[in-house]
Amino acid sequence: MAMAGNAEACLRGGIAKFCYGSSRSRVPRPSSFLVLQLAGYKQHRSFALQVLADRRNMESVMPVNTKANKLLSGDRLFQYVQAQVREPEILRTLRQETSKMRGSSMQVTPDQGQFLAMLARLMGAENCIDVGVFTGYSALAVAMVLPDSGYLVACDRSQESLAVAQRYFKLAGVCHKVDVRLGMAVDTLKELLVRGDAGRYDMAFLDADKRVYPEYYELLLQLVRPGGVIVVDNVLWHGTVADPSVVDTKTQSIRDFNKFLLHDGRIDYNLVSVGDGMSLCRKR
């Protein structure tokens, strides 16, 4: 028993190094021998199995969007945060496939995906909009938690990326909830208004062309109900919004949009530093 106790003590030390080790290129981890040794003792088996699960989670954390949060990017704390995400296997598979694609940095991080899913659950959302679907990670995360009668409009102008998204919608069994719209999102949103969808939607996620954010926002504000929420992504823009030396058009447009949201009396507003920054805009 003393041997098992020593093994668990060593293993716990290994976990501490694994989570907080100084090396970023090669993080120490508990040895497989210690894990298997503990698994042989009934009283330590559950702990050993948890270690194996935690290791798999840590090692599957992706650098798909390594610049998502400049405060955490490339840091062990970023890896730790991602390891705390309860990411469904199908989302992990989609994330890993997307990481090999051109433009993979556009994909949201796992914590952002589950943040959106949690928000949809808390709101009891039934009708949602995703503007800028890319390969479908955010849309799938939300669609999976909508009720069977739920409805999500998924907008993107790339046929290639939407094809990936549709494949995963089918694999996840949520095709009946998702209305995929190929084309310019501004046109799609206007079509929704023309057909009488004003005030229908509980939640909208905006992650498209940053320079068009103001136009998207005004259309979405008409489409969401009072009490509905618009979530806007990339509002920290890899930290450059706080750097006065960065004056390119895209960065400045995000700064201007953030300032506009701060003073918009039609919404309750909060900016959270999840991923690359997300603004929560609750329609009054």
UniProtKB/TrEMBL annotation:
Gene3D superfamilies named among the record's database cross-references: Vaccinia Virus protein VP39
Domain of life: Eukaryota
Ribosomal protein in keyword set: no
MF-aspect GO terms: methyltransferase activity
GO biological process, alphabetically ordered: methylation
Stored InterPro entries: Cation-dep_OMT, SAM-dependent_MTases_sf, SAM_O-MeTrfase
Pfam families cross-referenced by the UniProt entry: Methyltransf_3
Family note: Belongs to the class I-like SAM-binding methyltransferase superfamily. Cation-dependent O-methyltransferase family.
Protein name in the entry: Caffeoyl-CoA O-methyltransferase
Annotated organism of origin: Riccia fluitans
